Automatic annotation (TrEMBL):
It comes from the Eukaryota. Belongs to the GOSR1 family. It comes from Neolecta irregularis (strain DAH-3). It is a single-pass type IV membrane protein. It is found in: Golgi apparatus membrane. This is Golgi SNAP receptor complex member 1. Component of several multiprotein Golgi SNARE complexes. Involved in transport from the ER to the Golgi apparatus as well as in intra-Golgi transport. It belongs to a super-family of proteins called t-SNAREs or soluble NSF (N-ethylmaleimide-sensitive factor) attachment protein receptor. One of its GO terms (biological process) is endoplasmic reticulum to Golgi vesicle-mediated transport. Its main location: Golgi. Pfam families: V-SNARE_C.
């Protein structure tokens, strides 16, 4: 009875290990499908189930190792079974790490594509806004240029008007000079008139002075 107990325990642990190996293969198939579909979110229960299965298998392998060490008459078949269980567990752990890396890469790629789409969708709005701003600035500059041209045109017109008036005054002065020079003795007559006015003014002043003196003397 005592010799049958280790054998039974070994068989039970081996059956549990094989069942968990098959379960892990099924979970890997689901996990691999999710990774190939480049999904942005994955059911966390799949990863959690795989980690739980690998952990329990590690515990079973450890129990098998303890059982084998305590069995002095262990057969070569048991040693091979334990080595095989460890090998399959190590392969599955590496496969799980690879699938996780592939899935993370798929997530990063999907996020990058989403970001690029958002940038492409937003870029026309930015270009449109920038174009509208450039158009408004161009219109403002054009309006300033038109106003400046109008002011310059008015300044040039005023300058030309002053020039025309100056030319007209010059022509009028020349005509007056020509008219004065064309009348014989005009300057001489004007001179005599001015001399007579001066003489009359002196005579009037003398008479007024004499009247004042007489008034003062007789007064």
């Amino acid at each position: 009875m005592s010799s049958a107990t280790p054998t039974t325990a070994w068989a039970t642990l081996r059956n549990q290990s094989r069942r968990l190996e098959e379960e892990t293969d099924v979970l890997f198939s689901r996990y691999s499908a999710l990774a190939s579909e480049s999904v942005s979110s994955v059911d966390e229960t799949v990863e959690s189930s795989i980690r739980d299965s690998l952990m329990r298998r590690g515990q079973i392998v450890e129990s098998l190792s303890i059982s084998l060490d305590s069995d002095s008459g262990a057969s070569a078949a048991k040693t091979h079974q334990l080595a095989r269980s460890r090998e399959i567990l190590a392969d599955h752990e590496r496969e799980f790490a690879r699938l996780k890396a592939n899935l993370q890469q798929s997530r990063n790629h999907a996020n990058l594509l989403s970001s690029v789409r958002q940038d492409i969708k937003y870029e026309p709005k930015v270009k449109s806004s920038t174009s509208d701003q450039f158009l408004r600035e161009h219109e403002s500059i054009s309006s300033s240029h038109r106003m400046t041209d109008s002011i310059l045109a008015q300044a040039y017109e005023t300058r030309d008007e002053f020039g025309r008036q100056r030319a007209a005054l010059s022509r009028m002065n020349m005509r007056l000079l020509n008219s004065a020079s064309s009348i014989p003795g005009l300057n001489k007559i004007i001179g005599k008139i001015n001399t007579r006015k001066k003489r009359d003014s002196v005579i009037l002043a003398v008479i007024i002075s004499m009247c004042i003196c007489v008034f003062l003397f007789w007064g």
